[in-house]
Amino acid sequence: MAWKAHSIVWALRWGCVLLLGAGLTASCAAPRYRYVSDFGDKTYFKVPYGWKQVDQDDLCGQLKLVLSMKTCLPTFNVAYQDSGKKPAAQGFLDGTLTRPFLFAEVYPISAAGTAVTWQSLEDAFLPVSPAGRASAPVPFTNFALLSQVMETGPDGFLGVRETFDYTFPGGMPNTFNVDAFTNSTASQIYLLVVHCLATCYRQDKTAIDAVMSSFTMRRY
């Protein structure tokens, strides 16, 4: 489905070019969304067309810094931000963002070094479960779970869709929307995260919900 959706977007764009080149009147607006695909893992989602992709080398550097890695894993990861200028990878865990920041990743369980449980899916990005927050304290406060749904999907996928607040040092409340899934063989984690200041999140909730609801995985 991912390649088909991507092809439709480009067909519409080039159809407008051909019509205009032939001197015909056309009312072709820019597409509202672009589709982001990990073809190898049969995974895709959509982002508003105005969101810009973070430079991949910049993202790798930020992941190495935040996760204390020497090299970036050779797995799918990508970031986008609703930004009027070139977005920076430091938005990965920036507590002052006034526009939504998106991070997506697909990685093998062997890289995570742990078995997949409902709790590990809950805590895939930041500690959310009571046990996770007790054993892995973070420098954030005022945790609030806004919504959480445990899902079993087609093709044996299961996962967690959750929204929660954390307040960053300095008193900046942030809202995180996280989807974390694993496949039927529990061999991979599929992660999609959008976050920004709580005020930003409320303002852009419609666009964020559209992104999160589009997150789709397919069995090999």
Note the topology.
Blueprint: H1 2-21, E1 33-38, E2 43-48, E3 52-53, H2 56-67, E4 76-81, E5 101-108, H3 109-112, H4 118-122, H5 130-135, E6 141-152, E7 158-168, E8 172-182, E9 188-197, H6 198-203, H7 205-213, E10 216-217
Antiparallel strand pairs: 1-2, 2-10, 3-4, 4-5, 5-9, 6-7, 7-8, 8-9
Question: What would your notes on this structure say?
Answer:
The chain is α+β, with helices and mostly antiparallel strands. The radius of gyration is 18 Å and the shape is globular. The chain is built from seven helices and ten strands. It has a seven-stranded antiparallel sheet. Strands 1-2-10 form a three-stranded antiparallel sheet. The protein has two domains: 31 residues, no CATH class; 178 residues, Protein Transport Mog1p, Chain A (3-Layer(aba) Sandwich). The protein is 28% helix and 34% strand.
